[in-house]
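> call design_seq(struct)
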């Protein structure tokens, strides 16, 4: 089966592409390389933007694409608060172009990378797929809007979708070929590891007065390879059963910011200096997934459910590639 992967040069996209290739899929990556890395892709590649609908349609046709796993999006909460215009344009107009190009070319299957940010401030922990979705930032809203668009494209045009709502993703591929490299980096684990390497002087704790045991935010961390695996299970289930569905993806365990830093100290053997700062706007105190649905229905089970192992996998990548893909 030939799969188009928009955003396949990004962090989660490139890890999913490697898994797809390992399992015998033919893959073509589409990426505008605004954030993605050409060096992260070792298969057919087209540099293009989802805002160019004609080009997307041409690529689907030329490559005889049968399914799409869609990662191409802007994904920073803080940036989305300042630039809702470009977030809605890239994530929703771009997504709509992709769906229309799929409709034009008879492509019926779409796996979509969504987010825990669709839930906003959760009422219940762990969060279930059926819980209310009230995003507190434009990023989460753009993803929720696109989930709704897909629902109606399914009803009207029979384009099936699998929505995967990710929690916090971390780690790197076991081959050492690819890993996490954002510019600017905003995520906790890579920043903590850059501090351990001495690339940064300290790590700032965004709020130490939350209503949690140690006062810092709690998140649910999932390894990027486990996430990639879930995309393929979702694709195969969607195609074989010709159905749409929605799944949370996390490990079901919460770790505070301080616990992550302590785990990183243990893994790296480095001291890692911290500085207390104000809360980051839009951060809910606790986000923990229930992934029971995907475990039961698709028999997904995370291979990396120990936080030290997840951090160790990221640590290997950062140690080997302190300048990310610029070292490659
Ligand atoms: N965080 C922090 N300092 C940083 C970066 C992140 O304290 O320099 C906190 C952030 O407030 C959140 C958690 O770490 O509670 C995870 O943040 P990240 O940006 O990695 O992922 P998010 O939860 O926003 O998807």
């Amino acid at each position: 089966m030939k799969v188009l992967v928009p955003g396949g040069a990004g962090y989660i996209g490139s890890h999913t592409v490697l898994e797809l290739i390992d399992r015998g899929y033919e893959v073509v990556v589409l990426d505008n390389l605004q954030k993605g890395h050409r060096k992260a892709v070792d298969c057919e590649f087209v540099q293009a933007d989802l805002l160019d609908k004609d080009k997307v349609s041409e690529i689907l046709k030329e490559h005889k694409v049968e399914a799409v796993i869609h990662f191409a999006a802007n994904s920073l909460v803080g940036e989305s608060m300042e630039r809702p215009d470009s977030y809605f344009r890239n994530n929703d107009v771009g997504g709509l172009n992709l769906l229309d190009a799929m409709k034009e070319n008879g492509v019926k299957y779409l796996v979509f990378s969504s987010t825990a940010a669709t839930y906003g401030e959760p009422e219940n922990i762990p969060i279930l797929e059926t819980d209310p979705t009230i995003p507190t930032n434009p990023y989460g809203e753009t993803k929720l809007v696109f989930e709704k668009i897909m629902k109606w494209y399914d009803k009207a045009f029979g384009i099936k979708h699998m929505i995967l709502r990710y929690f916090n993703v971390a780690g790197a591929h076991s081959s050492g070929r690819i890993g996490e490299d954002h510019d600017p980096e905003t995520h906790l684990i890579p920043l903590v590891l850059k501090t351990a390497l001495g690339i940064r002087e300290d790590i700032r704790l965004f709020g130490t007065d939350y209503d949690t045991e140690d006062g810092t935010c709690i998140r649910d961390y999932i390894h990027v390879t486990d996430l990639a695996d879930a995309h393929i299970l979702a694709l195969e289930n969607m195609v074989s059963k010709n159905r749409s569905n929605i799944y949370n993806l996390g490990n079901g365990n919460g770790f505070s910011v301080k616990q992550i830093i302590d785990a990183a100290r243990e893994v790296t053997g480095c001291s890692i200096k911290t500085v207390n700062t104000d809360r980051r706007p839009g951060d809910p105190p606790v986000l923990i997934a229930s992934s029971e649905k995907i475990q039961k229905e698709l028999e997904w089970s995370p291979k990396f459910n120990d936080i030290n192992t997840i951090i160790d996998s990221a640590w290997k990548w950062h140690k080997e590639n302190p300048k990310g893909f610029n070292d490659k």
